[in-house]
Write a structure and sequence with these properties.
Blueprint: E1 9-10, H1 13-23, E2 30-31, E3 59-63, H2 64-80, E4 98-100, E5 115-118, E6 121-130, H3 149-155, E7 157-158, E8 161-170, E9 182-184
Parallel strand pairs: 3-4
Antiparallel strand pairs: 1-2, 3-8, 5-6, 5-9, 6-8, 7-8
């Protein structure tokens, strides 16, 4: 979770020197040696739920239908302003671990999901994902813009935040893979 202290293990001077040479400034490489160390926010998880160095929850799920609707809104808004519609935003702007497509659902249906199964793994939806300014940075060019926050603020704002995707917590360890069936439970 943002703002939480996490005890990490340093990978040593050799790793730091190698990474420093790549980055061009002094840095240290660290890792979470015990994945049981960091709990999820207790307001949204169970006492045994843990997260590694992911943002705040084990997985972030988004849907292709939701992104398509968001891109439609962005294009419509541009036309209303008399501007040329921009190229559609790619899903990687949102950095999801799981993207569902082909699940018979409407855009943003994931907001109402409580439980789902991907392959053989069952998940609880912990909460929606409030989106930050990083989504406004093009991952290819590093240029900063106003989208998608501008449009999400118009259509998907509540509690003073903009929302896109949902955070998942697995009920048990397991593997998921591209092409796994998704069932809303």
């Amino acid at each position: 979770m943002w703002g939480s202290d996490i005890e990490l293990t340093d990978c040593g001077d050799a790793a730091a020197a190698w990474l420093t040479s790549l980055v061009g400034r002094p840095v240290r490489l660290k890792w979470l040696d015990d994945p049981r160390r960091r709990p999820v926010d207790p307001a949204y998880g169970r006492p045994a739920d843990r997260v590694s160095l992911a943002d705040g929850y084990p997985l972030l799920l988004t849907s292709a239908a939701s992104l398509a609707r968001l891109n439609d809104w962005i294009a419509e808004d541009a036309l209303e302003r008399g501007a040329e519609p921009p190229a559609p935003l790619p899903m990687r702007r949102f950095r999801p671990n799981v993207v569902v497509d082909g699940v018979p659902s409407e855009p943003f249906a994931e907001d109402g999901w409580k439980r789902l199964r991907i392959g053989e793994v069952e998940f609880r939806v912990a909460k929606g994902c409030a989106r930050c300014v990083l989504t406004t940075i093009d991952p290819d060019t590093y240029e900063k813009g106003k989208e998608p926050i501008r449009t999400l603020s118009r259509y998907r704002k509540r509690e003073g935040k903009t929302w896109f995707g949902v955070n998942l917590i697995p009920d048990a360890p397991g593997r998921i893979a591209v092409g796994d069936r998704v069932a809303i439970l």
